[in-house]
Design brief:
By secondary structure, the chain is of the alpha/beta class. The chain has a single domain, classed as P-loop containing nucleotide triphosphate hydrolases (Rossmann fold), CATH 3.40.50.300. It contains six helices and seven strands, in the order βαβαββαααβαββ. A hairpin with a 2-residue loop joins β6 and β7. α5 packs parallel to α6.
């Protein structure tokens, strides 16, 4: 089964993903995509690693090239989150040619690479839960690089929402069903 969890920042998506995964088959993997660039990020990752271990998850850190992940055995995978992965791929300094490409070419390249990587991860798992954010719907004006990021994430969210069986949007910690059926979880 495939799940896409979307909504604004800090609205309960990640907590819900962990509760949902706990009801699904083992082993359980939590793929962190936050690249630690400062002490705050490093502290957050340390806390997430500990939480993962306490809850029986195997933590995997993957900042780019999610398609290169090789799971030891089939199980349940959480990717947390698509926003960080998209930013890492789009703005990775190792890809200077990508930065010089046209906006639409960059968006297509990055979105395509991430979608292929997620498909590879799907083939290795029984269940996959993708955590993402709803960005770009605020009507604000952004510079071109931010617009590219919004386009990449919008493309990914749209493609995954069409493909996945379950799509839930979160508001104030409350999941709302956009597609599929909301599983009953213990508090």
């Amino acid at each position: 089964m495939r799940y896409l969890l979307t909504g604004g920042s800090a609205c309960g998506k990640s907590s819900y993903a962990e509760k949902l995964a706990a009801t699904l088959c083992s082993p359980r993997y939590l793929v962190f995509t936050l690249r630690p660039v400062n002490e705050l990020d490093s502290g957050r990752l340390d806390m997430q690693r500990k939480t993962c271990a306490d809850k029986g998850f195997q933590s995997i850190e993957c900042y780019t090239d999610i398609g290169s992940l090789q799971l030891l055995e089939r199980g349940t995978v959480i990717v947390d989150c698509l926003c960080n992965l998209s930013a890492n791929e789009l703005f990775d300094p190792a890809h200077t040619l990508r930065m010089q490409a046209s906006s639409s070419a960059r968006v297509a390249e990055v979105a395509g690479k991430i979608l292929e990587g997620l498909e590879a991860l799907e083939r290795q798992s029984e269940h996959i839960i993708i955590v993402t954010n709803d960005v770009g719907s605020d009507g604000a004006k952004y510079d071109d690089s931010v617009l590219d990021y919004i386009r990449v994430l919008g493309t990914l969210n749209t493609v995954l929402a069409a493909r996945y069986e379950n799509v839930f949007e979160f508001c104030c910690g409350i999941p709302m069903v956009l597609k599929g059926e909301l599983p009953r979880l213990e508090s």
